Amino acid sequence: MSRVYLDHSATTPVHREVAEVMLEYMTGKFGNPSSVHSFGREVKKAMEDARAQVAALMGAKPEEIVFTSGGTEADNMAIIGGALANRKKGNHIITSAIEHHAVVDSCHYLEKQGFKVTYLPVDDEGIVQVEDVAQAITPETILITIMHANNEVGTIQPLGEIGLLAKEKGIIFHTDAVQSLGKIPVDVNELQVDLLSGSAHKLYGPKGIGCLYVRKGTKLERLSHGGGQERRRRAGTENVPGIVGFGKAAQLAKDHLPAETERLTKLRDKMIAGIEANVEHVKLNGHREKRVPGNVNFSFLFIEGESLLLSLDMKGIGASSGSACTSGSLDPSHVLLAMGLSHETAHGSLRLTLGKDNTEEEIDYVLQELPPIILRLRAMSPLYQHQR
Amino acid sequence: MYSEKVMDHFNNPRNVGELEDPSGVGEVGNASCGDIMRISLKVEDGIITDVKFKTFGCGAAVATSSMVTEMVKGKTIEEALKITNKSVAEALDGLPPAKMHCSNLAADALQKAIEDYQSK
Helix, strand, or coil here: A141? Predict the structure, then answer.
C-alpha cells in the first residue's frame, strides 16, 4: 500500500545532506563552541557559517540571528521578552485571533502579569485588516505580533503595511514566520519586522532548533539565564548539530525556493480543483491566492475530521484536521472559528500540506481515495439525511 | 490509539441507517461539540427486534454507537436498560481516556430511544 505524507505543516523529513552534516558535528567535530582550544574553534566557525545561512534566508545580518530550541521558544522570547523590556513605555499588545498557541499563550501569560492584549479579528478568508491594526494602536502599545503565514489555512498576512504602521509609532513588530520561512520569500526589511521566529523542522531540518531574528537595537529581556551564549540573548551551550543542520536546510530552502514554489503551487491547485470537482458540499478554507504553495484546507460538510483522518490513515494517507477530537479540547480550531466557520463546519475540516517529496501520482491517489471515504462517512451521518 | 475492536467497528459499522417506522428514536449531542448520535429502535413484544444508528463524530463515536446497537439487538427492554457506558467501552476492549465520553453518548442515545418508546 502506498504511504502518502501530507502533513508537512506539522513537520518535515530531514534532507539527507542535512542529516549527514549533523552527524559530522556529533561524532567528529564535537567541541563546545565557547572553548579556547581548536576542538571548540573549529566548531565555532561552522556555527557562524550556519548563522549566516539562516540569516541569508530572511535578508538579515548574521549577528541578528539567535538560535533557540524551536519556534515556540522564539515566540516566547520575542513576546514575553519584548513586552517585559518595554514595560516602562506601556502595557498594551496587539495580536490576531488566529495565532499559534505559542503566541496566544505567551499573550495570556502577559495578561496575568498586568499587560493588556487586543486580539484582532480576521475576515472570512483569514486575513488581518491593516485598518484594524491602526485603530487598535494606543499610546500604551509596545508590541504588535502577527504571524506571517497561518499554519492551518496557509493565508499570508500583509506584514509590510502593518510594519510601516508600527515603525511610525515606535512599536516593536514581531512575526511568527514558522510556516512561511523557506516556503515563500521572507525579507525582514520588506516585512518591516523587528523580531521574527523560525523553526528548522518545518523546512526539512531537524526538530529541536529554531531561531529568533532580533533587529539590531531591539531590546529584549532575557528569559533564560546562565552563560553569555548568543550575544547574551539566550543562555546554554549551543545545539551545534542542530545549528549546522538548520544552516544547511536554510541554504537548500533558499536554493530550491523558486522551483519548489512553482511545483507545489501546481500540485496544490490540482488537489483543490480535484476535490471541488469530485466531492459535493465542500468549502475551501482560506484565501485562494494569498496562500502558501503547499497548503490545502477544506471543510467537508456533515462529517467529522478525526473519522476522516482515520479513514485516510487506513489508506496510508497522513493529514490533519481542525476538529476538536483531534486537538483533545472541546472546541474545534480557533483559527477556523475566527474566520467565521460554524463549529460543525470547523469540525469537518481537513488540512493537507504538501512537501518536497509529494508527486503528482500521490495527489492522484488521494483524489481517488477521498471521495468514497466522504460518501461512506456521510451515509453514516445524521446531518446528511436532512440535506437530501 | 484505538483497539482492534474499535477499528473493526469503525471500518465495518453494524446497523447503520434509520428505521422506516421506529418504535423509539433517541438523539444526543450536538454539532457544536462535534458528536451527534441517533439511535432508532423497533420493539415487538418487549424485544428490540431491530436497531439502527447514525453518527457524526470521531472513530470512537462511530465504534461505540455501532457496538451499542450490536449489544441490544434481540434483547428485551429490561436487558437493554442495563447497558452502561462502561459495558460499551469494555466490549470494545477499552477506549483512550479522552474518548470515554463517546461511550457515554452511545449509552445515553440508547436510553433516550428507550424512553421515547416507553412514552408512546
Answer: strand
The CA distance from A6 to A1, in Å, is 16
* A-chain residues near B33 (CB < 8 A): 324, 330, 343
Q: How far apart are CA A73 and CA A234, in angstroms?
A: 10
Is B55 touching A (CB cutoff 8 A)?
A: yes
Quote the ipTM score. 0.93
Domain ranges (residues) in chain B: 4-119
B57 to A385: CB separation less than 8 angstroms, yes or no: no
Short-list A283, A286, A320, CA closest to A301? A283
Query: If we measure between CA atoms, which residue out of A254, A216, A270, A204 comes closest to residue A17?
Result: A204
> What's the mean pLDDT in B31-51?
91
Do A380 and B10 lie within an 8 Å CB cutoff? Answer: no
Full set of structural domains in chain A with CATH:
4-11+258-381 (3.90.1150.10), 16-253 (3.40.640.10)
Q: Which three cell numbers stand for residue A309?
A: 483522518
Measured in degrees and rounded to the nearest 5, phi and psi for residue B102 equal -65, -40
The yes-or-no verdict on residue A387 having pLDDT over 70 is no
Residues of B in contact with A328 (CB under 8 A): 98
List pLDDT tens digits, range A313-342.
999 999 999 888 777 777 899 999 999 999
Domain B4-119, second-level architecture: Alpha-Beta Complex (3.90)
For B44-63, the DSSP string reads: ETTEEEEEEEEEES-HHHHH
Contact across the interface for A304 and B58, Cβ inside 8 Å: yes
Mean pLDDT of A255-280: 97
